[in-house]
Amino acid sequence: SNAIGFGTISNPVLSNSDNTLSWGMCENASSYSVFEDGSIIATTNETSFTIKEVEEGTHTFYVVANSISPTIEPSGHSNSVSIVWTRLEKPTIVSDIDGDNITVRGSYGVNCVIKLDINNRLMSFSADNSGEQKVSISSKNIKGENLVICRVFSTNPLVLPSPQSDRLCFMVDNNDTTYYKAWITGSGYGV
Q: 40, 53, 125, 141: which has the fewest C-beta neighbours closer than 10 Å?
């Protein structure tokens, strides 16, 4: 602990549960600074902090207790906690649209939600761990040009959403026949 003048602040003891950091209250502390990979990311009056925006990979966190008193220096660093975030793989929309189904390929567990966007209409469904899922779209209701994209989300806070799939364009004519398919790579429109 550090001391100048009339008081001290002991070092916080840090722990985590998934993406939530927590520590005990430190005597003489009025706030806590949270550091990620050596850079301050937040200051809070609470004794916990949930990390919401992070890049894929391993990140190391620590906390410093602060005092509003000019006679008390901040604590030293808490112990460090490392947390690993992974990212879901990019889904593939299979181009064998048969008029009523779109197939989404990818290895996603049952704790994942697949979000399919057809012309800005969002459809969500649970992944079934099969590696290939058919989604009923009833093409009779989507005549004309159609743009389809897909993204997958996990309920696990340590698993980041997938990148957006490539976009698939197809046309459904007045006879309910799908007759045009094209892949467009990239993003800029999405879920």
A: 53
Tell how far CA 61 is from the center of its chain: 18
Torsion of CA 116, 117, 123, 129, to 10 degrees: 0
pTM summary value = 0.77
- Token pair of 165 as six digits: 């799939």
Backbone angles phi, psi at 173, to 5 degrees: -85, 180
Closest CA to 93 of 152, 177, 142: 152
Return d(Cα 67, Cα 33) in angstroms, integer. Answer: 11
pLDDT 10s digit of each residue in the chain, 191 long? 454 456 789 999 999 999 999 999 999 999 999 999 999 999 999 999 999 989 999 999 999 999 988 889 999 999 999 999 999 999 988 766 555 677 888 888 878 999 988 888 888 888 888 888 877 766 556 667 778 889 999 999 999 999 999 888 777 666 666 555 555 555 444 44
Burial 104-128, CB ≥16 within 10 A → b, else e: bbbebeeebebbbbbeeeebeeebe
Of 97, 133, 95, 102, whose CA–CA distance to 117 is shortest? 102
